[in-house]
User: What shape does this take?
Amino acid sequence: MNAFAAQQINDTTLTRDDLGFIAQIVYEHAGIVIREHKEAMARGRLSRRVKALGMSSIAEYCAFLRGPDAAAEIPDLINALTTNHTAFFRERHHFDHLRREALPALLRPGGLRNGRIRIWSAACSSGEEPYSIAAIVRDVLGDRPGLDLRILATDIDTDILARARAGSYSRDIVERMPPDLKPLLLHEASRNGDDCTVSPRLKQFITFNHLNLIERWPMRGAFDVIFCRNVFIYFDSRTKAGILDHFVELMHVGGWLYLGHSESLSQPHPRLRLIGRTIYEKTK
Assistant: This one.
């Protein structure tokens, strides 16, 4: 390793002023709050971005972000500081509710609207969540003729969306799935056996799109089910309230909203009813 490369890796000082500057950019563009106790996380991720750009320090990177050419870097900055932790069938109680309550309710007389089912994974990360949704829906509904099923999967991280679209995962990730649910993924092993790819029979239902939740939403709804899990923890109260109101507007009455295990509404929403652990139903 030459001296310059060593400097790239070792010069990772992140001052309080620079952290505040970075945090303000991220908040303005993504609504994500980065607090001081996240300094170590931010320093590590910014260091990788500094190295990728061939810069010598986080201070140099911040100087670049203050310059006239910063706009093109903002998406990569957001990608670097976005947390993408997920798993197949994570927080299983939501998928149990989808299987036992939500989908059967949609199949009752009058439940389906024009033969359509619309589900939104609003922070799909690397794709495990929407593929898990598709697996459950297909298992419950089977191949019903005339059923118009679409699953929208969105995320702010453009890099992670490319991985989600590919639908290819290391074998150890697939092996960690609950044994009774693993067959539902309809996955296919690669020739060398190291990776598994989700079957086209599930992929066909899913559309992956980039979406920043604090910017204009192009979709018009209405959704029967919305998953937005472990996202609100990164927003302040005002941002959360605005996004929640928008979710409610895009849901059918009787539709369901799933939040993350560590999330709750700071105050009751007049159009939502808590019906289970982090499961809400739109009432009006």
In short: DSSP finds eleven helices and ten strands in the chain. The longest strand covers residues 251-259.
